[in-house]
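name: query_chain
kind: protein
chains: 1
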Amino acid sequence: MKRITIIFAAMLTGFAAVAQTTTNEKKDEGYKFTVIKELPVTPVKNQAKAGTCWDYAGTAFIEAELLRMGKGEYDLSEMFNAYNDYCDRAMAAIRTHGDISFSQGGCFGDLLHVMEQYGLVPEEQMRPGVMYRDSLSNHSELSAMTNPMVKAAAGSSSLQSDSNYQLLCMKAIRAVHQVYLGVPPEQFTYKGKSYTPQSFYKSTGLNADDYIQITAFLHEPLYKTFAVESPDNWRHDLSYNVTLDELLEITDYAIQEGYPVGWDADVSEQGFRLGNKKGFCVLPATSVDNNALAGSDLAHWTGMTAKAIQDEAAEHPTPQRWVTPEERQLGWDNHETNDDHLMLIYGTAKDQMGNEYYLVKNSWGNYNGEFKGMFFCSKAYFRYKTITILIHKDALSKNMKKKLGVK
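structure:
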């Protein structure tokens, strides 16, 4: 009997070792992505110490659009865009006596306005960091200089002007921005041709009016436009409101048809922080529900705490949380979801568990190893944390164009 017990114990030990090996292999496998669709994009840039993700993401979007249009690869100047938008925002803050905030942040609409009103210039005309012997942006000192200037002007009851009735405070604000960002060119040569910023913009074939923003909230009527209530949407640009399911359908359709998608999102969620440096962004399901557990090992996931699932999600795929429109709305209304960061979506993919993802181009340089500044965002995360998307109006299906009244 004793010999049988020893043999049985050895068998159990063997089974345990096999089980442990299997578990380790599962964890060691990590995330394995299969790309379904990938659109061409320009190389990743680094916004460094500038809060201008709107500028870098918007410029990346426009550069991807030029590739889609068969115009070739462009490297456009973010500093030209930032200079013009900063000055516009300063003037708006002054005119509203400070009701419009003055900051580095912004939305996709800022890039479209700058492009339409001031034009575009190549990167070589206004490079980041040049004015302070660097190759990357650092707008910290710039803001420290200009924030008090704008605040003082916005709070004044009588501003001085020159002989042409131009505000002296704005001349001073523009001068400081030129010291730190460079002087916008009035005329320049590019590939042997002479341009102004406006004529260069027109030469690309771009039209700012061709681009629309789309969102999905419950507090405004469907298929109408409204200004999303973000402090950085200081221009009060309008977005079309659709259902949450339609927001994903529109994004999927655009990518499938070859159109890049600008993405304005919240990146404060733990699922972004835990994996972004490794090349993924997820929204793990931390409670049991049939949708989240579809196709998974039910016994395994139902026996785990929320923290344990989060920990596993840092190592390999887990079931994803598929939020309701009501949950998404509450996240926006209670300020859990904020207008944090803008990026570019340029493809779709799946992991080995079947979770679906978007390919995302970021603007933080090559910070995450083999992915070199790109990452995979789960559609579950996108569904919960998207503020707005930016697309060409022709990226809409015929049915959706009809619903929105877009021509």
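note: Confidence is low (pLDDT under 50) at residues 1-27.
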